[in-house]
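writing this on my phone so excuse typos. first protein, seq and then structure
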Amino acid sequence: MKVKMSEFLIEKKQIIKRLIQILTKDFKYVSVLGTDSHGKRYIVQKTGVEISDSFWNERGFVVRVYNGTGYSEYSFNELDENNIDALAQNIKNRVNAQIETLDKKFKITKYNVINENKIEDSFLGEVKILPEGCSSQYIIERLNKIKDKALNISNLIIDAKAIFHQVHVSKIFISNNKDLYQSYVWSEGYVNVLSRKGNITRSNYSSSSGLNGPELLDEMDTKVENTVDIAIKLLDAEAVKPGEYDVICSPEVSGIIAHEAFGHGVEMDMFVKNRAKAVEYIDKPVASELVTMRDGARSAKHVSSYLFDDEGVMGTDTVIIQDGILKTGLSDTLSAMRLGTKPTGNGKRFSFERKTYARMTNTFFVEGKDKVEDMFASIKKGYLLDCPYSGMEDPKNWGIQCMLNYGLEIKDGKLTGKIVSPVVLTGYVPDLLKSISMVSDKIELAGSGACGKGYKEFAKVSDGGPYIKAKVRLG
């Protein structure tokens, strides 16, 4: 079923065009991004039920103008036909005062005027079940069944939590040359379980995500048994002996490696700030010849797939690494202008009240030609790594660290049943990527959670890839 566009944004469209018309008399470039995103988060556990507004809820506008030197922005959430002239005057006054103040205190970076092609386009996503066609009662009942299913598998499971979160995103972008709108729904779900034996307590989780509505609940249900099985096995887990191992990384783990290694590391605003080592390695080898890596709103169909970014740049499919060679990075409009490159459609805002940064969208390693069973057969002694919790990477020095819930021991090509937990994967990014010797022939993406930049800016992204065989340091 087609997702419906925000009626609020449709109603404001002509007023926005009028605002742009007024501001264009004083500024060579004017654009307005309008957003209307709303959703709910549902949590069901033994202690009760919680329903809350989504972390991503927002409704408002941001205008960007060329101020003669660079770009100024003004955000607002009230737009009425009767106060449009007063709003335009306020924007002009604020911009002029800002430039006057900055000119006295700082050396301002100069930019050219954004040159846009004339585009009129739209995108409406599709889901099996529209959010507005599904009651909260239905979602809670489904989550209760998932929670009870986990609790009833074993008396070693002492608690279970089922979480479902869906957001309906609508955006418009209007300038003198562009008239764009888009509306889509993404959702994510988690099954979290807690196991206990004696004085030992362990936890495990599984996640589901995509451009889905409440139908995602069906996928969540299929993951309960394996989530519980691993949680029980973790009660007998041992600590991994620190050292270097041959490993097979699950798609979730290869995804977090891609995200941290050459996701954050190639966000090109970091190139401008001289805070990324990757700028020195464009067109140079940084990985095994088996490695090709992509990012883009059009690279895959997942939670960060859109028609246009928050600067009105059409989404693209960017090849970051091609056969082991670093080709390019991910840019917003202003960082691309500074570097003399073409924007990649990766300009994203945490909300209409925050500035744009170069951010990832759908980031993943491309599939190879190997069969997973052949990859296992090639391991004399090592681990299958799965269930990532978090990751960090230093774009300036290329150190990487990924926190994983567990590793399953492999000996002579077979799983032994032994499990180690927790697992910390560390290393130097090019060493890790150059050690990749096998890549499976299918990929999977995951888009649960959020990606942070600094301590406050968040973006919805997905990452993933195939199973990969590599040599890594574990601790």
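second protein below, same order as before
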Amino acid sequence: MNEDIFLSPEEVKNLTRRSRSDAQIRALRFMGIEHRVRADNTVAVLREHVRQVFGVLHGSARRPKEVEPDWSAI
């Protein structure tokens, strides 16, 4: 599998549900996704960062850490 390091313009559009780059930037900021604006005003988003933000590691969803009460404190 040869994935690009960055999301494609279509993937950024699907992620943000926005077509214009200024609206995409606002949506990415709202979601807490790091991005950079290229010289041609397109948005660059690292694929791996999106996976981390959404809790996906190597194609499988991460399980939240189970929390147990500290019974020794009682």
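The mean pLDDT is 87. thats all i got for now
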